């Protein structure tokens, strides 16, 4: 905090009578110990000054952060920070790191044997069941090259391998996989790509194997000839026209029956 002081001189009092001379007081020293608000982030200052005349009063006018500006530096001012300075970060040497590592390597087997002999608590190993999906990278057209994508999530420990099979036979040509990478909520995922030319009746499978896992996760993919978009549009349009015609006929019949009943009444 920076604190500055301002001075104000009192105007002399006018009087027509002659006043008896009085002895002027000797200038003394005044001090102020607290000049800024007592809240976090502020500093306190202590300064001393002499008043040249008794009619001059001095008071603190402004407070600001950091060291005082040049026009606001008071003679004999002492600045004291409320918060201590942070100690510089100390970095261990290579010898100290090696010593600590050696101690940890020696203590770990001892603690493990002690736990096995006296505590005898078997903690379950954390493992995740992979969730596997297989889909095409581009819209499916039978007889044209495409890329199959195998997505495996919930992999833990983050070590896995993927194998592809076609008609029950493994193949590796045109297969590539990404490394296991983390996603949200402590989850790990891996992708594998296989370049294929799907035909009617083909059966592809993607097998995900984890580290030391007893079970493998397999996902199958069978190509299905999709319905052409124009044919689908024609079918939907025909159904809409047929439904509209049926409702029109029903409406005409109901209108005729209501008119006949009205005429009979």
TrEMBL record:
Keywords: Membrane, Transmembrane, Transmembrane helix. Residues 1-14 have a biased composition (Low complexity). PROSITE patterns: IG_LIKE. Residues 124-208 form the Ig-like domain. InterPro entries: Ig-like_dom, Ig-like_dom_sf, Ig-like_fold, Ig_C1-set, MHC/Immunoglobulin. Residues 15-32 have a biased composition (Basic residues). Gene3D superfamilies: Immunoglobulins (2.60.40.10). The keyword GTP-binding does not apply. Pfam families: C1-set (PF07654). Residues 1-37 are annotated as: Disordered. The chain crosses the membrane at residues 235-257. PANTHER family: HLA CLASS II HISTOCOMPATIBILITY ANTIGEN, DM ALPHA CHAIN, MHC CLASS II-RELATED. This is Major histocompatibility complex, class II, DM alpha. It comes from Naja naja (Indian cobra).
